Amino acid sequence: MTAPWSQANLSNWNRRAALHIEDATGFYDVEGFVAGKDTLDPIAASEIGDVKGKRLLHLQCHFGLDTLSLARRGAIVTGLDFSPVAITGSRDLAATANVPAAFVEADLYDARNAIDGHFDLVFSSWGTICWLPNVKRWAKVVADMLRPGGTLYFLDSHPSAQVLDQREGRIEPVYGWRTPEDRPDVFTESQSYTGDAHSEKVVDYNWIHPLSDVIGGLLDAGLHLECLHEHELLPYRLFPMMVPAGRSMFRLPDGAVPIPLSFSLKATKR
């Protein structure tokens, strides 16, 4: 039996994908990408390294912008997402931009059954594991998809920032630091993070996974942690008070107490 949160989140991402592909707000700059722009954020661009000739799997690839940017950098790419709208958009975008890529529609937890072979690099970034109830299962999927010696590059919002919310002009703790698998945080939204308005309010379900669960899961799955970095930047406004930081990134305003807003890591399969 499908969990109620699963269908709600799939419906949400189908709606989002349709809006994001249209790109009415220009958040994704799809037109710029088609003209040759690289869409990797500055953190990933500076840390991921040379991907030329590597077989790369992009988990939760949305409609494929970063997947195709990595292909333009020379990677042999496969993107996976559970949204049929996103996967159709990915294939259309690849054809429009004339960039070779494979895209697979499947739930992340079913990746091993949906995709043959193993990869030199698994890539995942921004707003991915918060949609997954069990991060240790995610880590096992990553390990199963990597060849021995293959590497995961992962970048996402920081769990210490996810527990906070802006209320009456102040950032304060609102959510638990570890979300129980059977009791997700529930949100009702009238617009996407891109500023695109939904035709009607949507409900989505999220989980906060502490760093100990993310890193512990990867270690338990047989990966070796190569590096862990924390950053004061995000590619979207987690809090309304955040201000542009250049290169499509955002930060807390001057005078705010600095906190880590995101983290990145590399881990290699033994």
Tell me the layout of helices and strands.
Blueprint: H1 4-22, H2 30-34, H3 42-47, E1 55-59, H4 65-72, E2 76-81, H5 84-97, E3 102-105, H6 111-114, E4 119-125, H7 135-145, E5 146-157, H8 159-162, E6 164-167, E7 170-173, E8 185-191, E9 197-206, H9 211-220, E10 223-231, E11 243-246, E12 249-251, E13 262-269
Parallel strand pairs: 1-2, 1-4, 2-3, 4-5
Antiparallel strand pairs: 5-13, 6-7, 8-9, 10-13, 11-12
Helix pairs in contact: 1-5, 7-9
Give a structural overview.
- The protein is α/β, with parallel strands linked by helices.
- It has one domain (4-269): 3-Layer(aba) Sandwich (Rossmann fold), CATH 3.40.50.150.
- Helices cover 30% and strands 31% of the residues.
- The protein is built from nine helices and 13 strands.
- The chain has helices at 4-22, 30-34, 42-47, 65-72, 84-97, 111-114, 135-145, 159-162, 211-220; strands at residues 55-59, 76-81, 102-105, 119-125, 146-157, 164-167, 170-173, 185-191, 197-206, 223-231, 243-246, 249-251, 262-269.
- The strands form four sheets. A seven-stranded mixed sheet has the order 3-2-1-4-5-13-10, with helices on both faces. A two-stranded antiparallel ribbon has the order 6-7. The protein has a two-stranded antiparallel sheet with strand order 8-9.
- A hairpin with a 2-residue loop joins strand 11 (243-246) and strand 12.
- The radius of gyration is 18 Å and the shape is globular.
- The mean pLDDT is 96.
